[in-house]
Amino acid sequence: RKEVEQDPGPFNVPEGATVAFNCTYSNSASQSFFWYRQDCRKEPKLLMSVYSSGNEDGRFTAQLNRASQYISLLIRDSKLSDSATYLCVVNKGWGKLQFGAGTQVVVTP
Amino acid sequence: EAGVTQSPTHLIKTRGQQVTLRCSPISGHTSVYWYQQALGLGLQFLLWYDEGEERNRGNFPPRFSGRQFPNYSSELNVNALELEDSALYLCASSAVDSAYEQYFGPGTRLTVT
Question: Does the bond joining A10 to the residue before it have cis omega, within 30 degrees of 0?
Fold first, then answer.
């Protein structure tokens, strides 16, 4: 089993709609989590940190379910500029972040 | 505020050669991290430097090495290049109290022929 698993997608989303996707992790001791977005052939950009049950930043909401070991990301009122690959990241400690393979989101006009 | 910078942007090397990649962290950040992202694959953790010391290392052979300088900039060295080393090499930095929130540079794209 991979340490961080994500549905690769793509999730095709009409502009203005809501999309949500999950990420599961295997290490129950993990304490902090992140969502990054990565555009094609560019560097990952930090979208949100998740330390407790969840976090909200504008149209983006992250939820953490420690019992079931998953993190979700919800995007409301999707914009064309939200098209990207969303990387779920688990902090393994000692500076090591474990990246998932990413979920591709395509927002269509 | 300037972000993480990396040089060079692109590099083409021949198998067996050696390469040095450079990274300057965000001002005030003391930790530097290196990752490898091969085409179509996820990011793989390479190295973590903090306050000039190597703190952690990923599952890469010893020919991948690096260092961090007193100004917190860092170098990644790869010896005896192999074709499989072709990848995007990303550097990230974080502040000491940031709980490992890492900010990435644009990367160096290395092609080994």
Answer: yes
